[in-house]
């Protein structure tokens, strides 16, 4: 029964990483409370992907509206072109200011309200675009913050931030999806999809995803824009 299982809030964007994260939380025996943030992102097709994934992996799913396009400052929330030249060394314009801090804060609020003390986030510090809020230091710092900023934490009922993909390559993540029996084709990673939802194949997210499946020796189930 769900009442006998520990609860975990899982940030579920609709991408491959968050899908695997939810699968791992379920495998660990948690009751999965999936949180998707509708931040008026350019790639809104990922919201539909999150719904599909949650239907199979989550015990409860909330899509929470929060319009970060009011702030702008990112190619995902503003009128800025998504780079298509390949993954660079600097922090790209697809970085959304403080996004993971904002999202984890929302997940923390739901966790405390729901009696959950475990949060899962699919950040990755190896094959990624260089975002500062995907690093181990960030995860550790947020866990410390969570236990200083909440009634539960202050009263000795601490939170744990799980980042099981943190030190995985994209190939590792693709293999985990396969091991867990997940349909990776249900997930969506592209930052600049076509109107019909097909992935562009050229943005950082598409390049990293495609390389991950290739390096893992697995077929890439992504539907790309026809050449």
From TrEMBL:
CDD domains, A to Z: QueC-like (cd01995)
Pathway noted in the entry: Purine metabolism; 7-cyano-7-deazaguanine biosynthesis
Pfam families registered for this protein in UniProt: QueC
SUPFAM superfamilies, A to Z: Adenine nucleotide alpha hydrolases-like
Ligase is among the record's keywords: yes
Binding, Zn(2+): 190, 200, 203, 206
Keyword Ubl conjugation: no
This protein's UniProt keywords: ATP-binding, Ligase, Metal-binding, Nucleotide-binding, Queuosine biosynthesis, Zinc
Cofactor: Zn(2+)
Reaction it catalyzes: 7-carboxy-7-carbaguanine + NH4(+) + 2 ATP = 7-cyano-7-carbaguanine + 2 AMP + 2 diphosphate + 2 H(+)
Lineage: superkingdom: Bacteria
GO molecular function: ligase activity
Top-level class of the enzyme under EC nomenclature: ligase
Residues binding ATP: 12-22
Co-factor binding details: Binds 1 zinc ion per subunit.
EC assignment: 6.3.4.20
Annotated function: Catalyzes the ATP-dependent conversion of 7-carboxy-7-deazaguanine (CDG) to 7-cyano-7-deazaguanine (preQ(0)).
Recorded family membership: Belongs to the QueC family.
Name of the protein: 7-cyano-7-deazaguanine synthase
Source organism per UniProt: Sphingomonas alba
